[in-house]
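Dear support,

We are seeing what looks like truncated structure output for some complexes. This example has two components. We would appreciate it if you could run it in full and send us the complete token output so we can diff it against ours.
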Amino acid sequence: GQQVMQIPQYQHVQEGEDFTTYCNSSTTLSNIQWYKQRPGGHPVFLIQLVKSGEVKKQKRLTFQFGEAKKNSSLHITATQTTDVGTYFCAGRVSSSNTGKLIFGQGTTLQVKP
Amino acid sequence: EPEVTQTPSHQVTQMGQEVILRCVPISNHLYFYWYRQILGQKVEFLVSFYNNEISEKSEIFDDQFSVERPDGSNFTLKIRSTKLEDSAMYFCASSELLAGSGELFFGEGSRLTVL
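Here is the complete output from our reference environment:
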């Protein structure tokens, strides 16, 4: 079946260090979304990438969509304690006409002050 | 800001009992979803719902699960005969556009504990 793999599962960084999480799909995606879930919270939408090779920035966050539309990454520059949480990528398979999003396993980020 | 609301926030039930989880999606949204998240694990798709019918369901969504939009505002998930492995956080989500075209707005979740 369709799978979206995400690595690493956990990452502990010192405040001020950079952080990257990677997402890979077994099939071509029509687009990919990223969500953040704070501890005890619910997923909150961050961004959507649609075009092959697309790069988008939100302040210290940089999102990339691969040329083949099968992989994506989220990079956080100079992490802060407010970045703590689990980051999920979620992909929509090109062949799906129902909007089903397949979530990766998530990367949980811990930031030590 | 409009939000998706879910009730109850936490439900404890005995194995074999029926459970109904309720959701009020954002009012102008057309697409509704249920996802579940077993503690510390990934967010798993259960079912999508559009135009008063199921548009897609996962292999998890077997005959013991059903969804309904009884009155044009509520969107419910019923688990007919709960099992221990149904213990999870259940998230309702809605979208103005087909998910993947637009963002999903998630509710705060309903934590189900099956004893």
